[in-house]
Amino acid sequence: MKKAVILFVAVVLCVLFAPVALSAQEQGESKGISVKGKELNNGVVILAVQEGKNSFELHCNKDASGCTILELGDYMMIRLPKNRGLYECANVDVYRKSANSEVRDRLGQYCLVEAK
Fold first, then answer.
1. Confidence at 82, pLDDT banded by 50, 70, 90
2. 46: closest CA among 78, 37, 54?
3. What is the pTM of this model?
4. Into how many domains does the chain fold?
5. How many CB atoms lie within 10 A of CB 51?
6. Residue 8 lies inside a defined structural domain of this protein
7. Is the terminal CB of the chain with fewer CB neighbours within 10 Å at N or C?
8. Is residue 14 part of a domain?
C-alpha cells in the first residue's frame, strides 16, 4: 500500500512540474535586434535585421499565422529550440521591446536566414 501511495505522489508531482520545466527549456535567450528594412517578395515577408554587428534576414510566409511585417525599429528576438516553430529552419519569435526587458506579446514567428 505504501508503495502505491508513493508512486501516486510521484506521478502527481511529475504532472504538476513537467509543464514548468518544459516551458523553461523552450524559452531561449532573448536578444535585442533592430529591423533595418522590410519587403514583400512573392508572398514572402523579408525583414533585414541587425543584432549588434551581425546582419541577417527573417523570413515568413505572408499568409501564415504569426507572420507580421514589422515596422523599422527595435525588438526582442528569442531563438526557438530545434524542431519548434512553423518553418523547417532556425525559428525565432519576435517581441516588442519593453523598458524592463520582460517578454510579453509575440509579434511574429520567422525563419532566421543568416548571411553566408
1. confident
2. 37
3. 0.70
4. 1
5. 12
6. no
7. C
8. no
Cβ-defined contacts of 96-103 (< 8 Å, 24+) = 97/32, 101/30, 101/76, 103/27, 103/30, 103/76, 103/78
Residue 3 lies in a domain: no
Query: How do residues 37-80 score in pLDDT, each as one tens digit?
Result: 999 999 999 999 999 999 999 999 999 888 999 999 999 999 99
Provide the domain limits for residue 100.
Answer: 29-114
Q: Residue 25 contacts by C-beta under 8 Å, 6 or more apart in sequence? A: 81
Position 9 in a domain: no
Q: What is the pLDDT of residue 21?
A: 40
Give dist(CA 26, CA 52) in Å, integer: 24
Determine the Cα–Cα distance for residues 49 and 36; give it in Å rounded to an integer: 6
The stretch 86-114 carries a mean pLDDT of 83
